[in-house]
Write a structure and sequence with these properties.
The protein is an alpha+beta fold. It contains four helices and six strands; from the N terminus they run H-E-E-E-E-H-E-E-H-H.
Amino acid sequence: MKRILLVLFVLLLLLSFVSLFLSVRPGNLYNEEYAIYDSLGQTYRFSFFASFLQTSFTVRVQINDDGTADLFYRGDFITNRGLLRSGRARLNETETQEFFHLLNETDFWNLPTEVDRMGTDGHTVTFEGAEDGMYHIVNRWVPTSDDPVSRIKQFFFDLVEQRFPISHIVILFAMAFTVSIISTVGIIKLLRSIRTK
């Protein structure tokens, strides 16, 4: 009987880890995304790529004629509310003006594309902008606090935390994680009872 229970616990543990892996594996961040350098109107895109963690995402900002902006999110980002895979939101006119104010304050269009700073761990930040036939991109490996790109990065991290609803994938993640913990505890208890007898 104990062997049957052990086999069941091992199978349950394996299934829960597979489910956990499927719920958090990073997808292609650019599925349904496109190159913005030849976009009509005004389009911006922020991308965050972690070296080893499964936390990478992109947010595209499409400026509308009425002064608002549409936001399109793709990727895997663990927020304080759970795991986020995709989403869409809107900035009103005031919020869109705050975004433009950030671009002006950081002098985005004149920032160097790259700086002489690289590493093997950490994360990479990319921010692109296309407006009236102009295109500019900045790439930074772990932007320092004195680099204006760090303010752009913080803006988008706050934006993702505040504006995007968590999808149903959070429920799958939580369930898989819970089953994994319960299975592990069960196997440990079962193995201890087998050793003592």
